[in-house]
Specification:
The protein has about 475 residues and is an alpha+beta fold. It contains 9 helices and 26 strands.
């Protein structure tokens, strides 16, 4: 089976686009811009148009990209596009570049790899496609100068040092991909842009919109867990905050609201009782939704108050199970959480800026530390003293049960004291009666590879205990 490779080499080890790796649609747009700007447009012909139309039809490619890590963010001030006469205004622009690990001039930084079922068609279009890629100027922002080339590879192999991102994941990085008709749509948008100013005013709607979408997952990485999140508000619209040690109580409120909402649908009641309420058999104890209170952390003056909550799927969730989270995403906003006496306590509201609000819990990171302590599934003492060996074994088993294999764990430490300001000592957390006899510890874990959040572990992970936050 032949593979088409479009290989991109960046001139710098800094990349300023909004996503890494750059989306296949971003590459397609950059190729069209390079081939139809300036002198190269004189050579544009039917062969080039045919090659790009053929490329549209290939679907989402694998992406092989150099590892990228976040550089220091900064803000620049640029002229504001204002038509007000006599005014010179500036607007702030946030810059969040990526540093390409192992970048070397002349070496491949990104390879887009399509499996080509018809190698003869690929050989027909390859010369024109190579001419188009040769005119690439930049990929990302205008300062991200780049060069590219096209080739056919019979083996599908790629340069060393690149991570493989494959499409078709249920969850993960969502990237735009070329769709049939994209080239014609880009030409329409360019024409609209040239005529955007008229006697009727300015038409700002000239950006391309007709893209495909694909979910990408890094090869050999843990699949991201699907989740939804909400803020807790009082009836007057102000934020509601429960105490840090009430995590399992808030989780119970949320579980009850979720189960009640799903029982209103035409769903199997036995499935709701098992997957939502947690009445599972001994062979599937972990196959259930986790209800995760999210204490406020990240600042030296954080108080650990619970103002936000999340609901998370288990690693074993099937496509049928996914219906629960999809329904709750729409049914729960505006719902009221009630306590065991049926008194109204808080209202669920979708956060305005979801990632900024929850970044400590949903980012990808190497190091994670408990916000609410892990509850172990066995005793960790030997002759009335805490055994490091027994605790380490119990922790590794707990992570394995939660979907984090021992092979990706680099090092772990544990302690009674909290890692985050606003949190409290491990024994001070309230737990359900059936978990009360078991040891509770705060844990710091460093993985061998970045792990996406949310991260929860321990036998209390379904009821708000054993929640981790990313240490950047």
């Amino acid at each position: 089976m032949a593979h088409l490779h479009l290989t991109v080499r960046l001139f710098s080890d800094r990349y300023h686009g909004s996503e890494w790796p750059p989306s296949p649609a971003r590459l397609f747009q950059a190729l069209v811009a390079g081939a139809k700007t300036g002198a190269p447009v004189r050579d544009w012909g039917a062969a080039h148009e045919g090659a790009l139309r053929w490329l549209e039809s290939l679907g989402a490619p694998d992406i092989l990209a150099r590892p990228g890590r976040d550089a220091q963010r900064y803000t620049v001030f640029v002229p504001n596009n204002s038509l007000a006469e006599g005014k010179s205004t500036k607007t702030a622009k946030a810059v969040a570049p990526k540093i390409l690990v192992g970048h070397s001039p002349g070496e491949a930084d990104v390879v887009y790899r399509w499996e080509v079922p018809d190698s003869q068609a690929a050989r027909v279009h390859l010369p024109a496609l190579d001419e188009v890629t040769a005119h690439l100027r930049a990929l990302g922002w205008g300062v991200d100068f780049a060069a590219a080339g096209a080739s056919l590879n019979e083996s599908g192999s790629a340069p060393d040092g690149l991570e493989v991102f494959s499409p078709g994941a249920r969850s993960g990085l969502s990237l735009r991909v070329p769709a049939t008709g994209l080239l014609a749509h880009l030409q329409e948008c360019h024409t609209a842009f040239l005529g955007r100013i008229s006697t009727k005013g300015i038409d700002p709607y000239t950006r391309p919109t007709r893209f495909g979408q694909a979910r990408y997952r890094r090869a050999n990485s843990l699949p991201p867990r699907r989740w939804i999140a909400f803020e807790l508000q009082k009836a007057d619209g102000s934020l509601f905050a429960a105490r840090w040690d009430e995590a399992q109580t808030v989780a119970a409120w949320l579980r009850h609201a979720a189960g009640k909402a799903l029982l209103q649908e035409e769903l199997d009641e036995a499935w709701v009782n098992s997957y939502v309420f947690g009445h599972t058999g001994p062979e599937a104890l972990g196959h259930r939704l986790s209800f995760v209170p999210l204490p406020s952390i990240g600042h030296q003056h954080s108080d650990g108050g619970i103002r936000r909550v999340a609901i998370m799927e288990p690693p074993s969730a099937s496509r049928t199970d996914a219906e629960a989270l999809d329904l709750l995403r729409f049914k729960l906003p505006g719902s009221t959480l009630t306590d065991d006496k049926k008194a109204a306590r808080a209202i669920l509201v979708t956060p305005a800026d979801l990632h900024k609000t929850l970044r400590f819990y949903v980012d990808e990171a190497l190091v994670w530390e408990t916000v609410t302590p892990m509850v172990l599934h066995g005793y960790n003492t030997l002759r009335d003293r805490i055994s490091i060996v027994k605790t380490d074994r119990l922790l590794r088993q707990a992570f394995e049960a939660a979907g984090f294999p021992e092979t990706i764990i680099k090092v772990m430490t544990f302690q009674r004291a909290p890692y985050w300001a606003g949190c409290e000592a491990a024994p001070d957390i309230r737990v359900p009666r059936h978990l009360a006899p078991w040891p509770r510890v705060h844990v710091r874990v460093e993985f061998n590879q970045p792990v996406p959040g949310p991260v929860v572990a321990g036998i209390g992970r379904h009821c708000g205990v054993g929640v981790f936050a990313a240490r950047g």
